[in-house]
């Protein structure tokens, strides 16, 4: 539901300009240094990009889901590391607090997250609990006015930079599944909290993940999200529903960028005396990619509008994430092919994008997990 088309258009135009004139020219620098330059972080703060999805009362822009996916289409056109840096504050690191936090928790953390002065991270995955997140083993046992946390969280985006961690931990070890899990806000510097070595990843240079380790970490009871035990897994799933639409939209932006680059290359590169764009086999790859991007875009916009209208979009969000991220992988592969040998060397952005977009099919629920969610919902609805 777009609240004000004119304001959104101004935001999208300035974002398009920022992506095209500032971020794309710095992509190689980010890939080489594995860092987002501080001047760019500052520009992103000034533009309000850390608080896009947080309500205006907390200093954010309060965009709707439809507005958010339109923004993600633009941000997807450049290295995902830029988006990743602002992504946790707009999504997995903040939405749990926004949806289920107490008024004190919201007022304490959301304004700092919206301004980008504080970074957040979302700690669900563990060494032995990935897709089967409800089997997580990290414990949080009540001891007077504190909970004592023990366990390890794995692959946590922005963990090296975050000032707060939203941590899913088992407050009731007697309950093995989702019902025993609660969500906490854990501040950096809490004694007993430490970080593992940064992970060496296939792509997403400039975006950092590592383990977050809890060894008898004493967390004040007031940091339990919403002050209620046993609902942390539900909080995490609500966060991921929204995140899946965002990742779907990012994949569409990335696919569009790769296709634009491939078309430009195909028009310039000559073989057999003419631009390769004139060969019908190249045209087929261009056309298939165009049609698939269009289909994914329609799907994501439809799901976003449904969510803005108050519908439960568990099925639609999973359909959109599965289709868009898989589509992005197919487009990446075709665009490497269109570049020929040039697509395999790092002089062209497509080589980097090919590695970067592989992640979209894995995190925030793998493709297989999206298939399971869709089928489970279908079977449940059929049996009603
Ligand atoms: C760069 C990066 C950033 C990340 N950021 C975060 C973060 O910020 N916070 C966080 O909590 N997590 C994060 N993750 C973790 C990510 O969400 C998990 O890696 C993902 O959910 C998959 O879990 P897994 O790696 O344990 O794979 P597994 O669950 O071990 O899956 C391995 C394979 O088995 C398949 N599989 C598993 N179960 C089934 C099933 N029932 N049926 C069919 N197939 C199945 C999977 O689809 C996959 O193909 C990140 C991961 C990466 C790589």
How would you portray this structure in words?
The protein folds into 3 domains: 5-115, Acyl-CoA dehydrogenase/oxidase, N-terminal domain (Butyryl-Coa Dehydrogenase, subunit A, domain 1), CATH 1.10.540; 120-230, Butyryl-CoA Dehydrogenase, subunit A, domain 2 (Beta Barrel); 234-382, Butyryl-CoA Dehydrogenase, subunit A, domain 3 (Up-down Bundle). 50% of the residues lie in helices and 14% in strands. It has 12 helices and 9 strands. The strands form 3 sheets. Strands 2-3-7-6 form a 4-stranded antiparallel beta sheet, with no helix packed on it. The protein has a 3-stranded mixed beta sheet with strand order 1-4-5. A two-stranded antiparallel ribbon has the order 8-9. Helix 4 packs across helix 8 (232-268) and helix 9 runs antiparallel to helix 10 (314-339). The protein is globular, with a radius of gyration of 21 Å. The model has no long low-confidence stretch (mean pLDDT 97). Residues 121-125, 130-131, 155-157, 201, 204, 209, 359, 362-364, 366, 368-369, 372 line the site of flavin-adenine dinucleotide (FAD).
Strand order of the largest sheet: 2-3-7-6
Structural class: alpha+beta
The number of helical elements comes to 12
Shape: globular
CATH topology category name of the largest domain:
Butyryl-CoA Dehydrogenase, subunit A, domain 3
Provide the CATH top-level class of the largest domain.
Answer: Mainly Alpha
The main β sheet shows up as: 4 strands, antiparallel
Strand percent estimate: 5-15%
How confident overall, as mean pLDDT? 97
In total, the number of domains comes to 3
As a percent range, the share of helical residues equals 40-55%
Pick out the low-confidence regions. Answer: none
Distance between the termini: 30 Å
According to DSSP, the number of beta strands is 9
Q: Supply Rg.
A: 21 Å
Secondary-structure element string: HHHHHHHEEEEEEEHEEHHHH
Q: What is the second-level CATH architecture of the largest domain?
A: Up-down Bundle
List each distinct ligand once.
Answer: flavin-adenine dinucleotide
Pfam family, one: Acyl-CoA_dh_N
Protein name: Acyl-CoA dehydrogenase
Keywords: Branched-chain amino acid catabolism, FAD, Flavoprotein, Oxidoreductase
Family: Belongs to the acyl-CoA dehydrogenase family.
């Amino acid at each position: 539901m777009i609240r004000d088309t004119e304001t959104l258009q101004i935001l999208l135009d300035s974002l398009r300009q920022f992506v095209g004139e500032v971020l794309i020219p710095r992509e190689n620098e980010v890939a080489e240094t594995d860092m987002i330059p501080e001047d760019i972080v500052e520009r992103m703060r000034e533009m309000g990009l850390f608080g896009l999805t947080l309500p205006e009362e907390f200093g954010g822009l309060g965009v709707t889901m439809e507005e958010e996916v339109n923004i993600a289409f633009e941000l997807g056109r450049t290295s995902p590391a830029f988006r990743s840096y602002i992504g946790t504050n707009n999504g997995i690191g903040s939405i749990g607090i926004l949806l289920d936090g107490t008024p004190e928790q919201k007022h304490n953390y959301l304004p700092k997250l919206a301004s980008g002065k504080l970074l957040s991270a979302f700690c669900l995955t563990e060494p032995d609990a990935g897709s089967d997140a409800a089997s997580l083993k990290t414990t949080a046992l009540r001891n007077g006015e504190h909970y004592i946390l023990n366990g390890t969280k794995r692959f946590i985006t922005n963990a090296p930079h975050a000032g707060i961690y939203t941590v899913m931990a088992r407050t009731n070890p007697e309950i093995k599944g989702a019902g025993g899990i609660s969500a906490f806000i854990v501040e950096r510097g809490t004694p007993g909290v430490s970080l593992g070595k940064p992970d060496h990843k296939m792509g997403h240079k400039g975006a950092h993940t590592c383990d977050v380790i809890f060894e008898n970490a004493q967390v004040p009871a007031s940091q339990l999200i919403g002050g209620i035990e046993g609902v942390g897994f539900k909080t995490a799933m609500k966060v991921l529903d929204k995140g899946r639409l965002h990742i779907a939209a990012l994949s569409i932006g990335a696919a569009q960028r790769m296709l634009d680059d491939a078309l430009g290359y195909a028009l310039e590169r000559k073989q057999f005396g003419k631009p390769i764009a004139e060969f019908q086999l190249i045209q087929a790859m261009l056309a298939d990619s165009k049609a698939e991007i269009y289909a994914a875009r329609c799907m994501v916009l439809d799901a976003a509008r449904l969510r803005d209208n108050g519908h439960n979009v568990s099925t639609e969000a999973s359909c959109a994430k599965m289709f868009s991220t898989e589509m992005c992988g197919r487009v990446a592969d075709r665009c490497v092919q269109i570049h020929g040998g040039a697509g395999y060397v790092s002089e062209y952005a497509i080589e980097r994008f090919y590695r970067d977009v592989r992640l979209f099919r894995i995190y925030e629920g793998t493709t297989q997990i999206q298939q399971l969610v869709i089928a489970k919902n279908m079977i449940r609805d059929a049996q009603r």
